[in-house]
Write a structure and sequence with these properties.
Layout: E1 4-10, H1 15-18, H2 28-47, E2 61-64, E3 70-74, E4 77-78, E5 83-89, E6 93-100, E7 113-117, H3 120-125, H4 127-130, H5 133-143, H6 149-163, H7 166-169, E8 175-179, E9 187-192, E10 203-212, E11 220-229
Length: 230
């Protein structure tokens, strides 16, 4: 991927309460997920050298702008050069994607998008609702033979976040994936049917997908995608 840093961590029960944090979400589980995501974001920004490694650093980090992919801010001001952030979590795992990217002409950039899921059997039964066997085959050629329907769902969710279109405006089956036509790994051709304005035809996208396993926990399928480009 072009500059995307992917970080993963566990959602630890009671972590938010132990840290005396309140996320604004209702329920202890949601607070723990919020806390895990914010701590993972802090870790990534420290590794990028964008914030100092201080105990309260996560409290000073915010997200500027709307959408699933956000600009990262510190103490209320967007970081410069810009850093993009996308997060996904299950009940037990959190995945964060970070990328340095300066907006063009002052506009908020798109991507990367990330997703994580654990509903393996549901995806197997419902492939016809969100994808096709041909798309699954294209993804396997790009990312390896162990890819399963849940990975395809994660890739489409990540693309939906990266493009800013989501699944409300553009249903999953309208994110159409094809083999890129070469042997380069992690590359797919993507069409977003029904996008407004029209997407102008097939575009390339960079994707990674895999499975994270932790003893005693359900395996987590994950995917990160950079937005389609001409």
């Amino acid at each position: 991927m072009t500059g995307v840093r992917l970080l993963r961590d566990e959602v630890r029960r009671g972590a938010a309460q132990a840290a005396h944090r309140r996320s604004g979400h209702t329920g202890a589980a949601r607070q723990d997920q919020w806390y895990a995501a914010r701590q993972t974001l802090r870790t990534g920004l420290v590794r990028l050298g964008r914030v100092p490694d201080l105990p309260d650093a996560h409290r000073r980090i915010g997200l500027a702008g709307p959408g699933a992919v956000r600009q990262v801010s510190r103490d209320g001001a967007a970081l410069r050069p810009a850093v993009q952030f996308s997060v996904a979590h299950t009940a037990e795992q959190v995945v964060v994607a970070l990328r340095r990217a300066e907006p063009a002409d002052g506009a908020a950039p798109a991507g990367p998008g990330v997703d994580a899921e654990t509903e393996w059997a549901t995806a197997e039964r419902n492939l016809h609702r969100f994808g096709t066997p041909a798309e699954l085959d294209a993804l396997r050629r790009a990312c390896g033979p162990v890819v399963r329907p849940l990975h395809l769902w994660c890739v489409k969710e990540a693309l939906a976040k990266a493009s800013g279109l989501g699944f409300v405006r553009i249903p999953p089956r309208r994110y159409r994936l094809h083999a890129a036509g070469d042997t380069a790994p992690h590359r797919l051709t993507v069409e977003i049917a029904g996008a407004d304005p029209p997407d102008g035809g097939p575009r390339r996208a960079l994707v990674r997908t895999g499975t994270r396993t932790t003893a005693g926990r359900t395996p987590t399928a994950w995917a990160v995608a950079e937005p389609p480009t001409r």
